[in-house]
From TrEMBL:
It holds the Pfam family BPD_transp_1. Belongs to the binding-protein-dependent transport system permease family. HisMQ subfamily. This is Putative glutamine transport system permease protein GlnP. Keywords: Amino-acid transport, Cell membrane, Membrane, Transmembrane, Transmembrane helix, Transport. It is a multi-pass membrane protein.
Amino acid sequence: MSGYSLRTPGKGRGYNLFWKSFFYIALIGTIAGLYWTTQQVDYVWRWERIPNYFYYQDELNITSSLDGQISSIKKTGLNSLVIIKGEDNKSVQYEVPSDSLIVYQGDSIFTGDILGTEKEWKMGILLKGLLVTLKVSAISIVFGIALGLFTGLARISSNPALKMSAITYIELIRGSPLLVQIFIWYFVLGTLINSLLGKYDIAQIPSIWFGIASLAIFAGAYVAEIVRAGIQSVSRGQMEAARSLGMSKYYAMKHIILPQAFRRILPPLAGQFISMIKDSSLLGIIAVRDLTKATREAVSTSLQPFELWFLCAILYLILTFAFSMFVQYLEKRMVQR
C-alpha cells in the first residue's frame, strides 16, 4: 500500500468537486483581499528592483597607480590598452573598455586619476544570504544526524554512564530556548575559545561556526529522541532472532534494526530539519548574514519592506518544500526495496 488517506464513505465525485472549488475560491479570495489591502496603503511597489538583489552589474573605476603621462593608447577589440609612463621611466599598462575611456594620449596623470570604468557582474545580497542559509543548514543537518544517532543509541544503552550522559544532554538542550543557546555559544563559549586561541596566535573561529554548532547540538537532542523511539518501535523479537542466528549485537543493530527504524523515523526527521532550516534565521543576531539578516539589511537601505519580506518568505518556502520533496523521494525508494 503506497499511502493512507482518510476518506468519508458515500461521498462521490460531486462532493470532491464542490470542496475543491471551495478551496480555490477561498484561496483566490484571500489573495484578492491581500492585494486590495495593499492598495489602500500609500506604498509604491517596485518589483522591478528585485533581480538586482540576486545579481547586478556594478561599475568599477579603473584608476592610475602612479604619476606620469599617457604615452600611448592602443585599441584591442572592445578594449583599449592604456600605457602610462612615469617620471623614472617606469611604465604601467591598463586595459580599459573603449566606450568608457575618458583620457587621451599625452595627458598628464596623477595617482588615483580615473582612466575609465568597467562593468562587472556581482552577486546580490539576497543570493549571498541564501547561500549562507543553505551552507549553515546543510552542515548542521549532517552534524545533527551524526550527533543524534550516537546519542539515541547511548540513550538505550545498557552502559549507565552513556545512558545518563545522553539523558542529561537531551534534557538540557530541549529544556532551553534555541535563542539562548545561540547567545551562549557566541558570547560565552565563542569569547572564551577565541581568547584562548588569540593567546597562542592561532586564527580565530568565525561566528558562523558557533551558529552551526548551536543548531547542530540543538537538532541533535531532538534527533536522539526520534532515533530512540524508532529503534524501540521495532519488535524485540527482531534482535532476539538476529542474535539466535549468531549475529553480534552491533551487526544486528546495523543491518537489522536500524534499517527498519530509519523507515519509521524519516518523516519526523524531515519535520525536525525543516524546522531547523527556518530556525537558522536566528543566526542573524550573531552577525551571520543569512537570508533573514540579508533581507533586513536590504530593507533598511531600499525601504522596500513589502517586496523583500514576501520574497524572503518565498525563498524559505522553496528551501523547505525542496527538502520535503527530497524526503518523500527517499521514502518511496525505501518502500520499493
